[in-house]
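Weekly modeling sync, notes
Attendees: S.R. (lead), two postdocs, one rotation student

Agenda item 3: backlog of single-chain predictions. S.R. asked that every request posted to the team notebook include the full sequence so nobody has to chase files. The rotation student volunteered to paste the first one in as an example of the format we agreed on. Action items at the bottom.

Example entry:
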Amino acid sequence: GKAKIATTAIAQAGTNDTDIITSLKLKQTVFGLNQTLSNVTASRVAGTTYTNTTPYPKIVIITNTALTSGSITLDTSLGELCRTTRNASGAMTAVIPKGVTYTLSSNAGTSFIWWEF
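Predicted structure, as returned to the notebook:
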């Protein structure tokens, strides 16, 4: 048979098991590559709902020692697939799948640092 190169859309969908993928498309579609950690604190507000509009899963990290309670709430239709974790020093993390909404609820008011990767 003949080999068929996957288009970018096919590579990003991740559902085709017959087309082959080039190294460039692999770099463009695999989570973590070509992504950077950004401090988005100035554009984020607790209690506001945001949507991951990127074609990749997003990691959200929120830090502040005052974060003794709170959570990053994701689209509830995902149920147990998405969970917030919080360590002893108050840092919270969550993986946000593409297209999913997320909201920070916290006791820290506006005193936090919000990172997204």
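Discussion: group reviewed the output briefly. The chain is about 10% helix and 30% strand.
Action items: rotation student to repeat for the remaining queue; S.R. to check formatting next week.
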